[in-house]
């Protein structure tokens, strides 16, 4: 029987890594409320948007009692607490835009936030695992989705987080098939690997279809001008060069990156499976993003990376169907990343250059001028409207192409639309309306 599976004698299992058969990395059925003791948190967290617009969130947080965290017992309680405390933290820091930030997070917020974060193994800042993975409920039996907590930006914010949730959901069949790919390689079973890789490939295509829903549900000027600052962190951020002091936790300021779907475990898994390697600063950033994931999800990615190389298996077998399926899977990942680059162009590059223009001319619609007053300028200052980000994303996309099999590349092939699997159909029925 084939090569030995490194690391463990038992097959890779989702359960061991707290990954759901139905929801993947998404937290199944997140709690919608905390025990009554934490009402002061939830009352503020549910009203962050209104409190920001009346400029009173900081005052409310100063008046908030310092609550002990020991009554939070289950994982789902801790996840909702992290979501609530991180939402309040982002609102507190960015309430007045990037020009009037704070240096200190008050102890009645920072102490419980750091305790909850430590228990979860997560950083004390808003992350993808909060806003997307643990921030949803079904509004009605038809499966319409709703957020638990939100940030300024109205319907576009709802669209942004829920579309990202649909991308995660579309990935689930592919995630499950990773196990079959690995087992197939282990047992030298070419047919099993080919079949499972085909499911991965279809899942990546479904993720791309879900990603495109961004255009329907999210307004670029609202994303850029209103929401984006609330996702910004205090690491390498010129408007908070010293980071943030978490009062009552440590005197030295701490630095953390902001929330981003680069913290989603999905693409990290597919990269490791296909053998895609990201080098240089971009690779270092992506590796650092793994510290912003639930630890068990990070361990799942690491486990995949320790398994015998799928690409070597494909090369060794020299099976035409398997090679074609592998190539197709890589092509779909490249395609997903190209689609993502288009989205970033529309939602960041173009609004950033418009904002720069408006700032220079001081002419424009009143609403538009107001929105850019609060929008972060850090991007504009880094050259032509986010060129740093674009270089990073294009490098990551091009590094994906490096795993194509020599002399056999399907890189330029026209990819047919993948048929929907049962779970993807279910995902498409969970609508946002
Ligand atoms: C309006 C929608 C979106 C915008 C504007 C956007 C923007 C960005 C930006 C600026 C980065 C660079 C890293 C950073 O600054 O954190 C990034 C990285 C990334 N984003 Fe998005 N993103 C969007 C939606 C999504 C969605 C729905 C996903 C799906 C899970 C996603 C997945 C990723 C991944 C995986 C990376 C890391 C780079 C890579 O692996 O290709 N993004 N995104």
Automatic annotation (TrEMBL):
Positions that bind heme b: 340
Any one GO BP annotation for this protein: immune system process
Keywords: Dioxygenase, Heme, Immunity, Iron, Metal-binding, Oxidoreductase, Tryptophan catabolism
One Gene Ontology CC term in the entry: cytoplasm
InterPro entries: Indolamine_dOase (IPR000898), Trp/Indoleamine_2_3_dOase-like (IPR037217)
Keyword hit for Oxidoreductase: yes
Molecular function as annotated in GO: heme binding; indoleamine 2,3-dioxygenase activity; L-tryptophan 2,3-dioxygenase activity; metal ion binding
Family: Belongs to the indoleamine 2,3-dioxygenase family.
The protein, known as: Indoleamine 2,3-dioxygenase 2-like
Gene source species: Culter alburnus
């Amino acid at each position: 029987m084939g090569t030995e599976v490194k690391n463990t004698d038992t097959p890779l299992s989702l359960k061991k890594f707290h990954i759901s058969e139905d929801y993947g990395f998404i937290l199944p059925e997140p709690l919608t409320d905390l025990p009554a003791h934490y009402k002061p948190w939830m009352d503020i967290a549910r009203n962050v948007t209104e409190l920001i617009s009346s400029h009173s969130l900081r005052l409310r947080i100063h008046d908030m009692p310092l609550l002990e965290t020991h009554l939070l017992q289950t994982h789902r309680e801790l996840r909702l607490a992290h979501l609530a405390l991180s939402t309040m933290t982002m609102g507190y820091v960015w309430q007045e835009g990037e020009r009037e930030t704070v240096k200190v997070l008050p102890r009645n917020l920072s102490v419980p936030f750091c305790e909850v974060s430590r228990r979860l193994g997560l950083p004390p800042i808003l992350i993808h695992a909060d806003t997307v993975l643990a921030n949803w409920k079904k509004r009605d039996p038809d499966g319409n989705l709703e957020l638990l907590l939100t940030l300024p930006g109205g319907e576009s914010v709802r669209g942004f987080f829920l579309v990202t949730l649909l991308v995660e959901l579309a990935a689930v069949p592919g995630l499950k098939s990773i196990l079959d790919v690995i087992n197939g390689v282990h047992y030298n079973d070419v047919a099993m690997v080919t079949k499972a890789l085909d499911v991965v490939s279809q899942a990546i295509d479904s993720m791309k279809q879900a990603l495109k829903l961004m255009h329907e549900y999210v307004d670029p000027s609202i994303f850029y001008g209103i929401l984006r600052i609330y996702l910004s962190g205090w690491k390498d951020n010129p408007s908070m060069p010293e980071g943030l002091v978490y009062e009552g936790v440590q005197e030295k300021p701490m630095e953390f990156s902001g929330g981003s779907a680069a913290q989603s475990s999905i693409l990290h898994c597919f990269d490791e499976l296909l053998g895609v390697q990201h080098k240089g600063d971009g690779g270092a950033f992506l590796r650092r993003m793994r510290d912003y994931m639930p630890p068990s999800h990070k361990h799942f990615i690491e486990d995949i990376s320790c398994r015998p190389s799928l690409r070597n298996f494909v090369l060794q077998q020299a099976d035409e169907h398997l090679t074609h399926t592998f190539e197709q899977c890589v092509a779909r990942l490249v395609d997903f990343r190209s689609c993502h680059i288009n989205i970033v162009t529309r939602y960041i590059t173009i609004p950033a250059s418009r904002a720069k223009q408006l700032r220079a001319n001081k002419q424009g619609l009143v609403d538009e001028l107001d929105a850019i007053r609060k929008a972060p300028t850090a991007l504009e200052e880094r050259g032509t409207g986010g060129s740093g980000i674009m270089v990073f994303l294009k490098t990551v996309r091009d590094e994906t192409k490096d795993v194509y099999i020599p002399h056999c590349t399907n890189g330029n092939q026209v990819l047919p639309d993948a048929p929907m699997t049962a779970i993807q159909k279910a995902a498409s029925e969970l609508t946002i309306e």
